[in-house]
Specification:
two-stranded antiparallel ribbon, 3 domains, membrane, transmembrane, transmembrane helix
Length: 373
């Protein structure tokens, strides 16, 4: 049966063959392209719902079972409660309640954290001292072995094997000593734990028989999260306690650099005055001998060395260039470059140790200049 419909543009009549629903066709009057619509389905009327009173079987009233007259005392079976197990009719068991409160975590006050850090420094210092003494004993034993082998010319297999064994033990002691150094200055956390653990082994630390309580004490302190965060790389966000400790170190460095700077400036002025006096005397009286000339040259050279030391110490006290500051600290130990260095050399060594601190490096202007390049 063909499908007949109207064009959407000119409302003209279009007739196409049956089965072309959804296809495109052209209107014969306006030549526009129009889609062929689908034929509307005829809806069937639903049967009218009959009322309960119009039951064709003539059943009226409540529906009763045919077994009620046979078993009048029978009671309907109660439906079982839903259960998790489909094969049983047991009531479901209540689920165990989860604890609403989490276990309390050990928290330490800033004063307790500072106390733990002090205890860790004490324990690692004792272990470091014991390991150092053990290493020195092993090194002395190795030196004695070399002396005995060379003096007796005994190059047999057994003495050589004994010497190799002593050398291996010495190398193990050096490894333990290196890792304990990390624990003492709170640098790498994993190496600190390894070094404290190695200090329990007598083969790696001869003093382990006496110092093992400090090893256990150090491991217990290293397991504290509040202690771990003070190691390098474990807690770069320094809390205020560590920041106060760092500020104290910074003030100490400034104090040491200022003291050395003033002492070097004072003697540089004195050297300059002495050089001018000697030069004036030589000009007025003439050169009496080569020793006077050498003295003048030496005093002039020492004056310039003092000026270089002053420049380096100024860089250290003003946190300018770190390399120049470190050079000035090293030159302040040499009496030729700093005459009061004979008495103040402990301060120079202290300043060098403070300058070698990794965190102190970030305070210098040269560090930030390299970071921003």
């Amino acid at each position: 049966m063909p499908i007949s419909f109207h064009c959407e543009t000119c409302r003209g009549s279009i007739r196409v063959a049956d089965g072309s629903e959804g296809e495109l066709t052209r209107c014969p009057e306006c030549f526009s392209i129009v889609p062929v619509p689908f034929e509307k389905r005829k809806t069937t009327k639903q049967a009218k719902q009959t009322a309960p009173a119009d039951d064709p079987l003539g059943i009226e009233g409540d529906i009763q079972s045919r077994w009620d007259e046979v078993y009048p005392d029978a009671q309907p079976i109660e439906e079982p409660e839903p259960s998790a197990n489909p094969f049983t009719y047991e009531p479901p068991q209540p689920l165990p309640e989860k604890p609403t409160e989490l276990p309390e975590r050990e928290t330490l006050t800033p004063e307790q954290v500072a106390q733990k850090l002090t205890q860790l420094a004490l324990a690692t210092s004792v272990l470091l001292l014991a390991s150092t003494l053990s290493t020195l004993c092993i090194a002395a034993l190795l030196g004695f072995w070399v002396y005995m082998v060379v003096s007796t010319s005994s190059y047999r297999f057994t003495p050589i094997l004994l010497g190799v064994l002593i050398a291996v033990i010495l190398a193990m002691h050096l490894v333990t000593l290196r890792f304990l150094f990390e624990a003492r200055f709170r640098r790498d956390y994993s190496r600190s734990v390894i070094g404290t653990s190695l200090s329990l082994i007598p083969l790696l630390n001869l003093a382990a028989v006496l110092s093992f309580p400090y090893s256990f004490w150090g491991l217990i302190l290293l397991a504290k999260p509040q202690v771990r965060m003070h190691f390098r790389g474990e807690g770069d966000e320094l809390d205020y306690l560590y920041q106060e400790q760092f500020e104290r170190r910074r003030q100490r460095l400034v104090f040491v650099a200022n003291l050395l700077f003033m002492g070097c400036c004072l003697f540089a002025v004195l050297l300059t005055m002495a050089t001018w006096i000697l030069a004036s005397a030589m000009i007025a009286n003439g050169v009496q001998g080569k020793y006077e000339l050498l003295t003048l040259v030496a005093m002039t050279l020492m004056t310039f060395l003092h000026l270089g030391t002053i420049f380096g110490l100024h860089e250290a006290r003003s946190f300018g260039n770190r390399r120049w500051g470190l050079t000035g600290m090293i030159l302040s130990i040499i009496p030729i470059c700093n005459i009061p260095g004979i008495l103040l050399f402990p301060l120079s060594i202290w300043g060098i140790l403070l300058l070698m601190t990794p965190k102190m490096r970030t305070q210098f202007r040269s560090h930030w200049d390299r970071m921003t390049e």
